[in-house]
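fyi for ur records
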Amino acid sequence: MPYSLYLRQKVINFVENGGTITKAAHTFGIGRASIYRWLSRPKLSATKVKSRSRKLDWK
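which gave:
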């Protein structure tokens, strides 16, 4: 399940105002890798999936 933009902004604000990434992860219940990924993005926006179709070969 994707995280809301509101939650992402709250986490980023928490870290930018002196909170540690580990503390933010525990406080908001998300993974540290997600926080690092959000901080590395130039613009915080919704992530769009290009295609969700799967090709299954049952033969």
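The first helix runs from residue 5 to 16. thats all i got for now
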